[in-house]
Model the fold of this input.
Amino acid sequence: AGAFGPLRAPVVHEMQPGPDIAWFAPRAVEVALLAHNAKLLETWLLFARDGGRDAYAAAEWLPLAGLIEAGLVPIDDASEMALRMAKGRQLDGTRLHLLASALDALAVNVPIPWWNEAANHPQPAQGVLPPGGTLSELKKARDEGRAGEALLLSLEAVGATPPDELHMLALGDIVRSLHKTGFKREAGWCAFEALYRLWPTGQTRIAAR
Done:
């Protein structure tokens, strides 16, 4: 999914946010996310907070920003946007659960209102689970601090399954294990890959073009 982000990031980096190109804000934020470019992401998110229809569309990416860069977006802001999207029926229970679970696995303190809203929906039961015993071995390696083994088991658990097709339990265990054993960037990227293609604004995402 992220192939186009790094290619377009230098071009977007040269653009200065302003009223004349406000329409481009959602795409700029998306490019920054795909490129894992925290500085570029922060620049356009700050612009998005000024209001307006295009700014709001850009801010719809806020809940995913915390997966890319811890602390870049205050979790309360991300939670507020997620809840607004849920009330507007842009975000269903599956996405609420998956994102809350992913952020929790990244050691982010997800606000109680977010959990409460997610609790109004059944936990997603669909998704691919790795072969029996893999997650148990992964948890053991994680708890015992065996980073190399945890990384290999995480790769085995994912296998050929696209991250967005993983079961919520598998995604949470993989992300948590990578994060806890020192692979924090990889953990965030895995979580982002899983949520990006499920995100409602993905109907117009650049990676699909």
